[in-house]
Amino acid sequence: MSQRIVFPSVFSPDRLHLRLGRRLLVVCCAVWGVVSGHTADAGIVTFTDAASWNAAVPAPSSVDFDSLAHGSLSNQVAGLTFSAINSGNPRVSSAVSAQSGLNVMEVNPKVAGDFDGGGGVQIDFAAPQAAVAISYLDSEFAGNTITLLDSMNGVLATYELQYPHPNEWLFAGFVSTSGANIAAIQITVAGSDYVAFDDLLYGAEANPVPEPSSVLVLGLIAMPLVLRRTLRRA
After folding, report:
1. Exposed (0-12), middle (13-18) or buried (19+): which is 230, by Cβ within 10 Å?
2. Strand order through the sheet with 80-84
3. What angle do CA 63, 52, 39 make, to 5 degrees?
4. What is the tens place of the pLDDT at every residue in 177-195?
5. Exposed, middle or buried by CB within 10 Å (0-12, 13-18, 19+), for 149?
6. How many CA atoms lie within 13 A of 118 on its CB side?
7. Cis upstream peptide for 164 (omega within 30°)
8. Do 92 and 198 touch, CB atoms closer than 8 A?
């Protein structure tokens, strides 16, 4: 009695499921890739690309620190209040490698006549903002963070600065999906690091920005179409 040998078809259930799984994975990756930033917490969308943030925030106010005299920061900028946190010493200093102009903001404390690592600053807005952004230089270690606060000092989001990026300017921008509810930001530098900041941007209005989770939902909705096309080809 002869035995029939069955060769697996390229359209067998196992092969078909594998193909479908790969298609779904491609869709998920493509959907996630269109998001310019990630959501640190619900209601706040984070941007690491300045162009994308600027596209979402019409006519933001800006502080480049170049018009300010060197020295401690407090209330020199109308509508803003700078306060020391984490034993910091927020001040305006000159820098050869400033993002724009010649001045930057530094927050490191002064110990025994010299500046030490670490420090921090809280920047309060006279009126809540819908978006805020800042550029930073020389984030080399973990633990450097930006925290967004509401008017009750509740934490809206916390973002860790990218590292290690010595001698490189990077961008961190945030847009609230709940309107103008950002009352203050806290910038904290780890004890062993020195980080410079420049070009503080903020705006009371922002264009609607979908959160990454919302974009992924749209991708999931599109998955049945991918399945249907694959099944038809099969």
Report:
1. middle
2. 80-84, 120-129, 182-188, 145-149, 155-160
3. 95
4. 999 999 999 999 998 899 9
5. buried
6. 11
7. yes
8. no
